[in-house]
Amino acid sequence: MFKILNSINSPQDLKVLSKEDRELLAKEIREYLVDTVSKTGGHLAPSLGAVEIAIALHYCLNTPYDKIVWDVGHQAYAHKILTGRRDKFKTIRQLGGLSGFPNINESEYDCFTVGHGSTSISSALGLAKARDIAGEAYKVVAVIGDGSLVGGMALEALNHAGHTNTNLLIILNDNEMSISPSVGAFSRYLNKILINPTYNKIHKDLEGLVKRVPWYGFRAYRAAKRLEESVKSLLIPGMLFEELGLRYIGPIDGNNLEELIKTIDSALNLDGPILVHALTKKGKGYAPAEKHPERFHGTAPFNVETGDLKEPASNSGVSFTDAFSDAIMEIAKDNPKVTAVTAAMSDGTGLDEFQKAYPDRFFDVGMAEQHAVTFAAGLAKGGLIPVVAIYSTFLQRSYDQIIHDVCLQNLHVVLCLDRAGIVGEDGPTHHGLFDIAYLRHIPNMTIMAPKDQSELKAMLKFAVDECKGPVAIRYPRGKVVSPPILEKTAPVSYGKAEVMSKEGELAILAVGSMVWPAAAAAGLLFNEGIKSSLVNMRFIKPLDEELLKALASKTDMFVVIEEGVLDGGFGSAVMEFFEREKISGISVKRMGFPGKFIEHGKKPELLKNYGLDAQGIANEIKKVCAKGKCAR
Ligand SMILES: Cc1ncc(C[n+]2csc(CCOP(=O)(O)OP(=O)(O)O)c2C)c(N)n1
């Protein structure tokens, strides 16, 4: 079916293609991307926009000896297809299949494992320095989007790169979009050149002049060129990079393969750090994605003809994100101090409605989680109540800001950690498994986890109205699964758990998303004659110590279940408590994720494989009970 693509088994095969065949290859890759992602889901629009960049780089470079470092890596699907993974590409994001991001364990062409943004210039610069010290000659290229460029780390790396004299090529893949349109002063700066007719006209006139000048006009041309340079310094974004010590080339059409090849080829022959500014179209070549690049940034399986999702989201219930969105809207209505902060993910975190309703109280700070948290600390110090909605995995970036800028001053910042737990197909870079461990030990921090929609709302209200210091609320990816009958929630009271059943024999302590699977497991066990007390812990910190003591007076067997890494997790907190209080003779079985990076796959299959579905929990508890430890 694919005349050219089927002949590409490694980047070496690209080198013999004619110009026409290279163009055809780009077209075929796009068709293959659309067809595959329509079945698997994935980051379609970013990858469609970067097809030419991938082809041009592999054409110009000698990979894997030369290194390409992709930022985030969600735009690197064409790179995967060109580097010996064409057929396997159909398995992308599925259990046991290809990762959705570059991964060093998957291919020698993936020279850095990625998934989070703004890392590429730092790691590429490190590779380049290592090359210099080793006396090697490989070339290093970082590919970074305009959205990722505003992350603090990318700016820190530019600052460093500009003052070294290391050979490093940075391709700025500028589609004027992050997930939604890029925001901030940097993006405005990059845009200047595109919309500034004066500079573009001067540039065109000069080009015409070059073509017309006879040899004796060279000096006139040089003078004109100098004039252009000074006009340029007033008008073009390149000067910012030049001032930082990087050579700026562009802007060029990043979807024009031949222009890209020519530019990259000559840039690779220059010394020092170079930045090529390539303008691309997100979703390029697939009309629905061009029209709705945000929708197709990361998509579920869809119908190729219409672009519609195969399973319309509206039919599939309320997600925790929707629940958060409703909750903050309701709370903000009555409290003008409530402000919302996102790091380039207003849609993903459910803040779109808030943005529309309260534009003055909404802050999209760009893809800059560290800044988001310290900025929120400032808002709080100034008397507002910031609600910072960031995915659990991306809040990892803000660890020091949470400690130093929020908790040390005991500031009232509400952190809402969406996607806490297993996220599924995005895999180890995106699973939110570490937040309990990275937040729990910070003084002044309160941490809650709701089991359902109404509890999330009650907790957010509690965090805004009743708390005075830092609070984190963690909730999972996906739908709220609570039985509707239990949608009415008992009031949230500081540090107090909710006892859901008191049957005895053993105590099951469940956290947030694990409450309902634990309840289902308790039901299965009950049918087999094993009775348990089930507790929805609600507060990860502080612990409901009174309850734990009361339970320990009746049972010696505790099972603690959390959707997080066991090391340093909630189960550890319970064990620490018993140790601290010198309550002996207690056996605590901790259930959660082992201390390794969890692979990608569908969320339910991963939960099942790690024994965290109802049956898995019941089986594990039965094993514990079989050892005769359930009853006194
Ligand atoms: C630290 C971090 N924060 C947030 C994200 C989620 N995220 C993935 S891609 C993306 C937008 C990236 O924009 P850009 O770099 O311009 O790439 P494009 O998708 O436009 O090609 C965001 C916010 C992430 N991967 N890493």
Can you describe what's shown?
α3 crosses α12 and α14 runs parallel beside α20. α20 links the parallel β10 and β11. It is globular and about 90 Å long. The chain folds into three domains: 248 residues, 3-Layer(aba) Sandwich (Rossmann fold); 161 residues, Thiamin diphosphate (ThDP)-binding fold, Pyr/PP domains (Rossmann fold); 128 residues, Rossmann fold (3-Layer(aba) Sandwich), CATH 3.40.50. The chain is of the alpha/beta class. The model has no long low-confidence stretch (mean pLDDT 92). The structure holds thiamine diphosphate. The site of thiamine diphosphate has 24 residues, from α2 and α6.
Number of domains: 3
Mean pLDDT, all residues: 92
CATH superfamily of the largest domain: Thiamin diphosphate (ThDP)-binding fold, Pyr/PP domains
Supply the number of helical segments: 25
Overall SS class: alpha/beta
Which CATH architecture of the largest domain?
Answer: 3-Layer(aba) Sandwich
What is the beta-strand fraction? Answer: 5-15%
Percent range of helical residues: 40-55%
**Unreliable stretches covering 5 or more consecutive residues:** none
- Categorize the overall geometry: globular
Rg: 27 Å
What name does CATH use for the topology of the largest domain? Rossmann fold
**Compounds present?**
thiamine diphosphate
The CATH class designation of the largest domain is Alpha Beta
Largest sheet: 7 strands, mixed
Strands of the biggest beta sheet: in what spatial order? 7-6-8-9-11-10-15
| Record field, number of beta strands | 17
